[in-house]
Predict the structure.
Amino acid sequence: MYSETTYQVLRQAGHRVTRPRKAVIQVLQEARDWLRPETVLTRARDIYPSLGLVTVYRTLALLADLGCARRIHFEDGCQGYVRRELGHSHHLICRACREAVEFPGLEDLDQLIKPIETRTGFVIEEHMIEMLGLCPNCQQQ
Ligand SMILES: [Zn+2]
Ligand SMILES: [Zn+2]
C-alpha cells in the first residue's frame, strides 16, 4: 500500500512520519488525478485541520526528492503532484480530467539516450518526461 511504503521510505531516509506528513500522504494515496499543493492542503485539512501550506509544500518536495511523488510542470508555470509507486516510471496525464496514470519506464529510453550521449559527450544521469494527452474517457466526449 502506498502510504505504508512511503512511511518506510521516509524512516529509512531519517525523516519522521509526523501527522501532517501522514495527512499529505493519505491525500496523495486517495487521488487518481494530479493535485496542486493548494488542493492537497484543502483535502489534508479534513484529516489534520491545523496543517499549513508551507508544510504541504515542504512535504510534497520531500516526497518528490525521495521518489514517492512526481512533480508535474505545466506551461503556465504551475506545478502539480501525483503519487509515485513504481521504481523507474513515467506518468501519462490527461489534460482534460487531470487523470494521472503511472506506468513502468523499464529500459525505455536507452535507444534514445545512448546516441545523444555519443553525439554530445554528455553523461546523461536522469530524464524527466511529461506526457500529456486525452484519456480514453475524455476522447469519447
Ligand atoms: Zn481524461
Ligand atoms: Zn524513463
